[in-house]
Amino acid sequence: MSGGRASRVLPVLGCVLAVLALFGLARSLLAMTYLNLRFAEQVDPLSRAMSFYAFVDEGEMLSGALVLVAIATAALLTGIARSGVRLRARTAALFAVWCLALALCAIFPTDNSPRIETFAGLVHQIAGAALFAGLPLAGLCLARDLAARPEWEVTARTTRGLAIGGVAVALAYPIARLPDLLPWWHFPAVLDLRPVSGLVQRVLFGMEVLLLVVLAVRLLRISLAHRGTMPRAEPVSTR
């Protein structure tokens, strides 16, 4: 592809990928919001993990939402790379872990019990841990990559802030579940945070999706700006 043609195609591709990412993220948020409201009596949004939506009547919506987020992430990262940001191997690897974890959580449901009882449940637990830790770490790496490009500097700072917040909330979740992780240890009632562990998980997921939305909006704005500055083709004279 020639330089002139590439300069015209890349901004359009960036717009398409950004819109695709935003659509997938919005659709997944709507699905998760619906599940939280529709099945609040069956799955307590304060104390129970989102994984248990797999066992409600419309549980397939959970898997669909996770797959959409994975697709949106892949589209977004491709668009950012095409916009001129040089992504380090570590950044790409961490985002790949996040996408793979989303897919595994969608394919392998958790066990509908307090303990891991099946292979699918084990895979889900491992993937879930990688899922919630992976994106904040990937965001920290990506922020460093973005900072090297002037048009991404502000977004890099926002990404770093959201990623640091995500790391903090990701650490809070296992702390809230310590009585389950250490069943032989007697925890005082005041230290038993399981009644709010589901809320912590939902806050973390929301922060992670927000991070992706911020990146997608910036990619769209940069791509539109580049389209607006493209030189117009000179009309071909017929004389």
From TrEMBL:
The chain crosses the membrane at residues 61-80, 92-110, 122-142, 162-179, 199-220. Pfam families: DUF998. Keywords: Membrane, Transmembrane, Transmembrane helix. This is Uncharacterized protein DUF998. It comes from Amycolatopsis cihanbeyliensis.
